[in-house]
Write a structure and sequence with these properties.
This protein is mainly α. The chain is about 70% helix and about 0% strand.
C-alpha cells in the first residue's frame, strides 16, 4: 500500500493542498519510503519461506543471512522512525541467530550452487576467520552432516540386503551370486573408513559449484538427474528438502479441507476428502505451470 501511494506522492500533495487538507509532509513521505525499503527485505524472505509449490528449506541460510546483513547496517540506526523497531528486531534476531535450526542449515548443503561453502562463508563472515565461535559452529555442522550420511548409508545397505534376500523364487545359482555380492557389499561397508577412496559426500562437496540463476534452477530435477551418481545423498536430499520452513502449507491444507466438509457435506470419508484436496492441488500446479 505504501509503495503504491509513493508513486502518486506529488499528486496527493497537490490535491491535499488544493482542498486545504492535512497531508503528510515531505519529511514524512521520506520516512515512509525508508520504512518500506527496510521492510522489503523481510517481505521477500516471507514470500520465500511461505512458498508451497517448491522446496524452500535450502534457501534458509541465504534468507536468514540477508536479514542479518540488513539489521547490521549502521545507517538504519540513525532513522528516528525506525529506531525503536530496528533495535527491537535486532535483539530478537540476535537471540535467534545464536541457536539456528540445524536441520535447515544442513538442507543448505544440498543446494549444489552453494553446498557447505556457503555455510562456511556465512559463519566466517559473522564470527570472523579462525575464531573459536566459527570453528565450533562449523564443527557442529560438519559432524552432524557426517553422522546423517553414515546413517543413510547404513539404511541404504540394509534396504538392498532385504531386497536381495526377499525373493525366494530366484534360481539357486543366481541367488548364490547375489549372496556373494551382498557379502562383498557388507565387507565394503564395514571397511569404508579404512579405504583411501572418497565417499559420496566427499566427492559431492569437492565438485565445483553448479552455476545457475535463482529463477530457473530446479533443485529437485538436479537431484533426480544425479541420483545415480549420488544415490545416498539423493535420498538425504529428498528428506531434507521436504522439510517445511513455514507452517503455512499445513495450515492451508486444513483450511481447504474445512471448506470441503461442512454441515451440508459431512458424510464423505477420509479417502474422498484426501482425493479432493490432492486433486485441487495438482490441478493448481498444472495451471501455474502453463501460466
Amino acid at each position: 500500500m505504501v509503495s503504491e501511494a509513493l508513486k502518486y506522492k506529488d499528486v496527493l500533495l497537490w490535491f491535499g493542498n488544493s482542498i486545504s487538507m492535512d497531508v503528510p509532509s515531505l519529511e514524512e513521505w521520506k520516512e515512509a519510503e525508508e520504512m518500506m525499503n527496510f521492510l522489503k527485505v523481510f517481505l521477500n524472505v516471507t514470500k520465500t519461506f511461505s512458498t508451497v509449490r517448491r522446496p524452500s528449506s535450502h534457501s534458509y541460510m541465504k534468507e536468514v543471512y540477508s536479514i542479518r546483513s540488513t539489521l547490521l547496517e549502521d545507517d538504519m540506526s540513525f532513522n528516528k522512525t525506525l529506531q525503536i523497531l530496528f533495535f527491537d528486531m535486532k535483539i530478537r534476531f540476535a537471540n535467534y541467530w545464536e541457536s539456528p535450526n540445524l536441520i535447515l542449515t544442513l538442507a543448505c548443503v544440498f543446494d549444489p550452487r552453494r553446498k557447505l561453502l556457503f555455510v562456511d562463508f556465512c559463519f566466517q563472515d559473522a564470527y570472523g576467520e579462525k575464531t573459536d565461535k566459527y570453528y565450533e559452529r562449523m564443527r557442529v555442522v560438519q559432524s552432524s552432516l557426517t553422522i546423517f550420511y553414515d546413517e543413510y548409508e547404513r539404511m541404504t545397505y540394509n534396504t538392498e540386503r532385504v531386497t536381495s534376500s526377499g525373493s525366494p523364487e530366484v534360481e539357486r545359482g543366481t541367488l548364490e551370486k547375489m549372496k556373494f555380492e551382498m557379502r562383498f557389499s557388507q565387507f565394503q561397508f564395514q571397511n569404508r573408513h579404512l579405504r583411501p577412496n572418497k565417499s559420496e559426500l566427499d566427492n559431492y562437496l569437492e565438485e565445483p559449484l553448479v552455476v545457475s540463476d535463482e529463477e530457473n534452477f530446479d533443485i529437485l530435477q538436479w537431484w533426480k538427474r544425479n541420483s545415480d551418481l549420488y544415490p545416498t545423498l539423493a535420498k538425504m536430499a529428498r528428506d531434507f528438502l521436504a522439510v517445511s520452513i513455514s507452517t503455512i502449507a499445513s495450515e492451508s491444507a486444513f483450511i481447504v479441507a474445512g471448506r470441503l466438509t461442512n454441515k451440508l457435506r459431512n458424510s464423505m470419508n477420509a479417502e474422498t476428502i484426501e482425493a479432493l484436496v490432492c486433486s485441487k492441488d495438482w490441478f493448481g500446479s498444472i495451471d501455474s505451470s502453463f501460466n
